[in-house]
Amino acid sequence: MKDSVFLTIGIASYNYGRYLSRAFDAIRAQSFQDFEILYCDDGSTDDSVSRIRKFMQDYPEMRIRLIEGENAGVMENKNRILENARGQYVMLCDADDWMEPDCLAELCGRAMQTGADQVVG
User: Given pLDDT bands bounded at 50, 70 and 90, which one contains residue 16?
Assistant: First the structure.
């Protein structure tokens, strides 16, 4: 796994296992591929972590990293993402988010063109 990527897609989650397939399918469908997924689990008691491990096994090309933490709340979990991201840019997501197939190409393309500190869609 390369250490540097353009984008870290940080997913903060607590007991959102039932939504993960939709989120990961949307990410897999992206035309832009220079990203890693940093999945930060906030002490889930459902099957979230086992689902993530299955995605990691089935789709190694997605460069998924899993960080498991004790339940500390959404802000602490998002801070874990920021502390561990390897990307030049970070996209903070929740586990029930999804995106259109050209979302990352549009946002990252604008960031590359302009060198902006932040791109919002």
Answer: very high
